[in-house]
From TrEMBL:
Domain RNA polymerase sigma-70 region: 30-90
Domain of life, source organism: Bacteria
Gene: rpoE
GO biological process terms held by the UniProt record: DNA-templated transcription initiation
Organism, scientific name: Streptomyces finlayi
RNA polymerase sigma factor 70 region 4 type domain residues: 120-171
NCBIfam families to which the protein is assigned, alphabetical: sigma70-ECF
Protein name (record): RNA polymerase sigma factor
Keywords per UniProt: Sigma factor, Transcription, Transcription regulation
Similarity field: Belongs to the sigma-70 factor family. ECF subfamily.
Pfam families for the chain: Sigma70_r2, Sigma70_r4_2
GO molecular function: DNA binding; sigma factor activity
InterPro entries for the chain: RNA_pol_sigma-70-like (IPR039425), RNA_pol_sigma-70_dom (IPR014284), RNA_pol_sigma70_r2 (IPR007627), RNA_pol_sigma70_r4_t2 (IPR013249), RNA_pol_sigma_r2 (IPR013325), RNA_pol_sigma_r3/r4-like (IPR013324), WH-like_DNA-bd_sf (IPR036388)
Length: 187
């Protein structure tokens, strides 16, 4: 038999919002399994998931008073976890850009061309509308299952697939037009 965790009830959440430290501690402890599980399903690595879950629980502890509807704790926490996982992904991208090149790596020319290509793709992804960019990053870059992406973004699977299709088509079009423009400029 599998054990099921339950979210804290509204009465406990209200008490935590009023400043009851015992209730707040219980809310954080009862939310922790859900937050961790969701972070593991979204983040690129278990370490990133743990960091995102910890940050989300800290935000819960500090900002529970800003939660408007006590019954919306789960969706509020899932949004916080999703945002933390996306922040972890952005930090990972920055760290990988700053990492020193290995001595057995590509030649200087290949490295420059590779960085230019990565920059070109990153710019095209960055130019996507936010809703399309989120789906593309979670599904294609993080490799998350479609259902997980749809759930994380509060979409139906069909809506997630539609956004992903539009994002890929837009990205393909942007990259192709940028490549044509570069071809016209080259001597």
């Amino acid at each position: 038999m599998t054990s099921r965790f339950t979210w804290p009830d509204e009465r406990l959440v209200r008490a935590a919002q009023r400043g009851d430290v015992g209730s707040l501690t219980t809310v954080v402890l009862e939310s922790q399994p859900h937050v961790r599980k969701f972070a593991l399903s979204l983040c690129a690595s278990p370490q990133d998931a743990e960091d995102a879950a910890q940050e989300a629980l800290i935000i819960l502890y500090r900002k529970i008073g800003t939660l408007r509807a006590t019954g919306a704790l789960a969706s509020w926490m899932f949004r916080i976890v999703r945002n933390e996982c996306l922040r972890q992904l952005r930090m990972l991208a920055v760290r990988s850009e700053e990492a020193p090149a290995e001595s057995a790596g590509p030649s200087a020319e290949e490295a420059v061309l590779q960085r230019l290509e990565v920059a070109r793709i990153a710019a095209a992804v960055g130019a996507l509308p936010p809703d399309q960019r989120q789906v593309l990053v979670l599904r294609d870059l993080q490799g998350l299952p479609g259902r997980t992406v749809a759930h994380a973004l509060g979409l139906s699977t069909a809506a997630m697939k539609s956004r992903l299709h539009r994002a890929r088509a837009t990205l393909r079009q942007e990259l192709a037009s940028a490549e044509r423009a570069e071809g016209e400029v080259r001597p």
